[in-house]
Specification:
This protein is an alpha/beta fold. It is 27% helix and 24% strand. It has a single domain, classed as Dihydrofolate Reductase, subunit A, CATH 3.40.430. 39% of the residues are buried.
Length: 250
């Protein structure tokens, strides 16, 4: 079955003449979810996490494939196709060896970005050797002299979230998807640099393991983040779409 919503969004991303919006309500809902990212001008950072109902993104040994179901995986690959760059931390690469391509959907592969400030990753990971898409490795400036396969090494004086997004924007990579893991997404959220956050909650109970979002401790609930939010059904999962623009970090 043709996905009219996705075709419409790909046309928008490619700058083709605007077609009329699809008529059915489900397609319009999918467009409403993805349109802020697809049409973003200037710098825009969106993060995505998939977690169990009890807040875990992986087991204790890091096994996370797959917490959420196929509908959410398709959504994640669509986000990749709309992004200029998809960013993960060193822990995600170490545990999952992800490809970060758009193989589940039509659409271009983004530039793959690995944030590894201390250069702890082995250069043999697939991201650095498979040639499937351009790859950047961001690290501390004093670690930038060691090669990592085919990846371009970018040394930063301070590889904090704001500096990372600024460095990517200087390379024309303004629409950035921060895909994982929980520590990396939490750092970008705590730094107040995210425009949007997607959290997909699956109806499974892991009971222990690696947690999702972790922010600095607060004393009172009135200090908690309460951003505007919409929810979307994705098969058996529920996606929470948080609009973080204009919010201060806790």
């Amino acid at each position: 079955m043709m996905d009219t919503a996705w075709i419409w969004l790909l046309d928008r991303r490619a700058g083709r003449p605007e077609a009329p919006l699809p008529a059915d309500a489900a397609a319009r809902d999918r467009i409403a979810l993805l349109r802020p990212f697809a049409e973003a001008e200037g710098r825009f950072a969106l993060a995505h996490l998939g977690q169990s109902i009890d807040g875990h993104i992986a087991t204790g040994c890091g096994q996370s494939q797959f917490v959420t179901g196929p509908c959410n995986l398709d959504h994640l690959h669509r986000l990749r196709a709309l992004a200029d760059a998809v960013l993960v931390g060193a822990g995600t690469v170490a545990h999952d060896d992800p490809r970060l391509t758009t193989r589940r959907v039509d659409g271009p592969n983004p530039v793959r970005v690995v944030l590894d400030p201390g250069r702890r990753l082995d250069p043999g990971h697939g991201l650095f050797t498979d040639g499937a898409a351009p790859t950047l490795l961001l690290c501390a400036a004093n670690c930038a002299d060691k090669p990592a396969g085919e990846a371009e090494i970018v040394g930063l004086d301070d590889p904090c979230p704001a500096a990372v997004l600024a460095a990517l924007a200087e390379r024309g990579l303004r629409r950035v998807l921060i895909e994982g893991g929980g520590t990396t997404v939490s750092r970008f959220l705590a730094a107040g640099v995210l425009d949007r956050l997607h959290v997909a909650v699956a109806p499974i109970i892991i009971g222990s393991g690696k947690g999702g979002l972790r922010l600095p401790e607060i004393a009172h609930l009135d200090q908690a983040l309460r951003p505007p939010c919409r929810t979307y059904a994705m098969g058996g999962d529920v996606l929470f779409d948080f609009d973080l623009r204009g919010m201060a970090s806790p």
